[in-house]
Amino acid sequence: MMLLRGPWPRRPRLPPTPRPAGRVHPPPRTPTPQVLCVKLCGNLKYSQSHLYSTVVPPDEITINYRHGLPLITLTLPSRKERCQFVVKPMLSTVGSFLRDLQNEDKGVKTAAILTTDGREIPATTLMEILLMNDFKLVINKITYDVQCPKKEKLSMEHATDMENVKSLVHRLFTALHLEEFQKKREHHLLEKIDHLRGQLQPLEQIKAGIEARSEAKTSGLLWAGLALLSVQGGALAWLTWWVYSWDIMEPVTYFITFANSMVFFAYFIVTRQDYTYSAVKSRQFLHFFHKKSKQQHFDVVQYNKLKEDLAKATESLKQVRHSLFANARRESQ
After folding, report:
1. What is an example of a Pfam family matching this protein (predicted)?
2. Which of 97, 145, 300, 301 is most buried by its number of CB atoms within 10 A?
3. Considering only CA atoms, which of 327, 311, 325 is closest in space to residue 189?
4. Running along the chain, 333 residues long, what does each successive block of 10 average in pLDDT?
């Protein structure tokens, strides 16, 4: 649209105002006409959207800071809604953030956080460390590039003051809540030990029966070996003094001794253990024990795990009670 120049319409003029004599006034200036030119090029709608649009793309993940805490905004894949997650950098970890994401949207089957070069970040990493650099968020095999806003670096004096404050708060919390925490831990360990003992009680009964049968079989096998050696010695004596002479039986006994040496050496090659009676007994006992365990469906792996957990819990309980006793002595003094 353009306003063009044109003739100005004439207006009726008023008679001049009488002025006092003796003063000369310049003649009035005629106003110069002005022209306003407005030129529209292209699509006005496109120009407005290009200049004034501030809408974030629906699939973009943004990170902003509100009241000093990071605020992660993303679109939930199932509901297609924008959701904001408030992160506590010093307490939250990568694993807790991913669990919160899956709890919020059950449609999130898989979720992981990777570095910009594709390496997976461990779940125990603190969010404070994660938000120092850009990263990738993978949700249901869809990768989103996340850019972290750069925070202003603190001066050395400010950083030192902050570390001192954190250390002081940690010491105060420990001093005020240590005894309460230790009592709660003692109660938790006692409950855990009772639960483990309840699980071990039926397994201990089955294990005792299997051990008794395995011990009986092992002892019977040892007595059978002693009887076999006795029969062998008696047979060689009978053949030497009543049937043949020593000149005939001497090479026979030599080859029998050499054959026994070969048997012992073969045992070492197979088992990588010296042929001692205690080692042979233990090995045979374990053989019978595992055989009976399979027959009675006794889970040896589960039993060993429960025993290890019980030993760790008992040791932790001793340490907690020792700390409580030391604190009580200091307070009494």
Report:
1. MCU
2. 97
3. 311
4. 44 48 47 39 37 50 83 86 83 87 87 89 86 88 86 59 72 65 83 90 88 86 87 88 85 86 84 78 84 85 89 88 74 64
